[in-house]
Amino acid sequence: MASADLPLIERRLRRKYEWARARRAFWGFTPSLLIVAGAALFAKHPSYALIFGAGMFAFGVAALWYGRELRKAVLPGVALGLIPLTLALCANQMQHACMGGACMTVCLPACTIGGFVAGVGIAIVGHRQKQDLGYWLAASTITVLTGAMGCSCVGYAGVVGLVAGFVIGLIPAFGRRLLRRRT
Amino acid sequence: MHDDLHPSLDQLVAQLAEGDRSVFTAVFRALWTPTLKLCCGMLKNEADAADAAQQAMQKVLERASDYDPQRPALPWALAIAAWECRTILRRRSRRKEVSDEGAPEAALEDASAELEQRLLVQNALVAVGELSESDRETLVATFWDQAGDVGGATLRKRRERAVKRLRDAFRRLYGIG
Q1: Contact A10, B31 (CB under 8 A)
Q2: N or C: which end of chain B has fewer CB within 10 A?
Q3: Any idea what DSSP says for residue B65?
Q4: DSSP alpha helices (H): ranges in A67-155?
Q5: What domains does chain B contain, in order, with CATH numbers?
Q6: A 56-75 → B contacts, CB under 8 A
Q7: Nearest CA of chain B to the CA of A45: how many Å?
Q8: Facing residues of A99 across strands?
Q9: Residue A66 to residue B19, Cβ atoms within 8 A
């Protein structure tokens, strides 16, 4: 084997390596489509659920393909995203709650509370595993996209509520991190 | 010497399994030569060996994500390469079978037995490579009937332990005891 051929072989094998990772990521993340299907079935606006679900699936596959800290963010991201998703889908079935003479939709508070709990969860997992920024960003994106499949029940307001709750949940962990850096 | 600056092959393959592309070239260079040598030794034909080495390296790198960091990387990669060579040899002997329809069956059986023997020796060498220096010395001394400075019960104990570890390594690498 001529040594001049080696760079060519290496390039070809590199492509094979990337394809193998991509295939593995795609099939490995396929079960998450069941969550998308469930969300589309029970959501008020199935089209929104499908759009956010496609985003979640694409991002999850990309994170698994890339590997390293992004790969570690996928499972906690999906698992914690299920909290706002489940709350929002349950709220969808209730439509609204009335207290005294006033009635309000329960979707927005469900999304905000779910987002807050998911944010706290991501902060705890990230803090315990001492993960870096890539993990935080990837886990947050997947959590928000998973939750958004159900939180589009009151249009984009639900998604905004989810993001707001999520950010509030993350603040203590970020604050602690900043303080530790200063000291 | 293996440290942070000069990581071992096991560490490099573990990093590649995690998705660290910066070690790809290092892993490729570290595995290419032993893989090619193994294929040359088994196939006795340079062109076939080069093809088999490429196929084997492709399989190793495609399965890099499945790599178990608890296992040594080189025997793992060489086991895949040996399997690839075995497949090529089988294909070759099948082709020969078709072209030499009139040839006596005994000759084919001999070739097949020799092939099996060669593969077994290659696999055993890979498994022996997994053992510690003292285990290897004990087995070699047993093979050549040289007891060295120890004898009797001590040698017997050492031999038993070395054979047990060899059996474990063989089982771990090839799934057979």
Answers
A1: no
A2: N
A3: G
A4: 68-94, 107-128, 133-151
A5: 9-103 (1.10.1740.10)
A6: 65-68, 71
A7: 37
A8: A102
A9: yes
As given in the structure block, the two tokens for residue A89 are 């889908």
Contact B65 A20 (CB under 8 A): yes
Tens place of pLDDT per residue across chain A (183 aa): 556 688 899 999 999 999 999 999 999 999 999 999 999 998 888 888 999 999 999 999 999 999 988 999 999 999 999 999 999 888 887 767 677 667 777 888 888 888 888 888 888 888 888 777 888 889 999 999 999 998 877 777 778 888 888 888 778 777 777 777 766
Nearest to A52 by CA among A133, A83, A43, A161: A43
Flag if A68 and B18 touch (Cβ within 8 Å): yes
Give CA–CA dist B17/B38, Å, rounded.
24
Residue A121: partners with Cβ closer than 8 Å, 6 or more residues away = A76, A80, A83, A169
Which of B27, B33, B57 is most worth mutating to test chain A (most A CB atoms within 10 A of its CB)?
Answer: B57
Grouping H, G, I as helix, E, B as strand and the rest as coil, residue B103 is coil
Give the tokens for residue B112. Answer: 């097949």
The reported pTM is 0.70
Spatial contact of A164 and A112, defined as CB atoms under 8 Å apart: yes
Element housing A21 (H / E) = helix A6-29
Q: What is the ipTM of this complex?
A: 0.75
